[in-house]
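Input record (Table S2, row 515):
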Amino acid sequence: MKGHDVVAVIDFGGQYSHLICRRVRELGVRAELIPYREAGKLMSEDSERVRGVILSGGPASVYSENSPKVDFKALKGKPVLGICYGLQLIAHQLGGEVKKAEKREYGRASIRLLNNTPLFQGLPSEFNVWMSHSDVVTKLPEGFERVAESSNSSNAAIQSSDGMVYGVQFHPEVSHTENGKKILANFIFNICKAQPSWSMDNYAEQAVEEIRREAGSRKALCAVSGGVDSTVAAVLTKKAIGDNLTCVFVNHGLLRKNEAEEVLRIYREELKLPNLIYIDAAERFLNKLKGVKDPEEKRKVIGREFAEIFEEVNSRYGPFELLVQGTLYPDVIESGESRAGAARIKTHHNVGGMPKGIRFKLIEPLRQLYKDEVRLLAEKLGIPPEITRRHPFPGPGLAARVIGEVTGKKLRICREASHIVEEELKKAGLYDKVWQAFAVVGDDKATGVKGDERSYGYIVTIRVVESEDGMTANWVKLPNELLEKIANRITNEVEEATWVTYAITHKPPSTIEPQ
Ligand code: XMP
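Output record (xanthosine-5'-monophosphate complex):
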């Protein structure tokens, strides 16, 4: 996106790379995550906007064969901050030495400042940081001095004498590091002299401009789901190209209770999405899902069916050259599509399942954003709260919450019970405070007594989690009275639900959705 000062975060595959971007943006400066192989390209095409460079952490050892490197010359003398692997790379590539530490340093550590540095300006002389490394810098490159030490690494922070290159062994982006945000602010504002101009207001304006430029006079198709991401992507695109956009809402029969009707009303009456096509494909999806038990297989079946429907829409209403998607940054990471190669966790079909027969060019105006940023953007765009406040919902819908085969019966139980969970949370004023709240049903059954009769019905599991961005999540300790009320309602109102359990694992180790 043109116009903003940018801090380039060069990604070496570290688990916290995306957090660095997030923190930089929280400080009001645009951050772009760049795979390390593409660092040179960014600097040659767009170096003027880049005010500084952050080298992320990463799982490799600098001295191992084929370890990722950075071409320091290509960074064109911009200020550099290396974090963890980034620090080791600075030492290793600029003539210092890195060795395996005698003791791996993981978790909280205390660092002591040794010399003045603009990086730690205004900070106390000793504070706690978060470490996660097994290599240490044992010799500094020429022209560098150490500015902080910890009990395990004597070079916990270093700087070059010309004040342009800095490195820290710890992770300032992680919330456990005290003063972490201040350290990043010192780097961005005092050292890089970046101007804070990143806000959702001008993000929207610039996104619209960019879509308009990319699209030209071409026609675009956007699959809208009722979720905040695809809706925001569609509204931005509508603002950019108006009637050249066609929106399609596919009901795969795996939606929440009353969802299709409510969403259609908002799309038609409030947002007036252009050329809206509604396709009721419930039967089609459910037929294809018959007998499919494996979670990844279910995702694939659903992805394939979506792709087929897109092809049909394309030949009937198109041809479209552009496909608009509300892909978010966490989708990109969790699909293992992250540019430096994070591991694949689940196939998110909204990233992976593209129609094979059509060569769409993708427009993904939210690819760099997190959910909370998108919600903010949605509010700025005047999208109603029924959509902005709606909990995230997976593309495969209730198929991710019905464990094993998706049958009509399990689907009904899951849908009705989820509705009760949501309704009770809303009544208790907690719906907006949690990330997701839903019911899960599998094939496990348990005995109940309803009236005077024994019945052998399904076990329903409730999952309620809080999260900042879906990457990690904690189960919510709901009041017992509320849990009791939900359980009572489910067993009373949902036919064939006999037991209710509550899921009490965090993510990690569990994921949010059971499948
Ligand atoms: P997990 O279950 O992986 O979910 O911890 C993290 C977040 O992503 C949502 N999710 C999906 N979204 N397609 C989607 O569009 C999917 O296949 C999918 N699987 C999970 C999930 O609801 C949670 O918010």
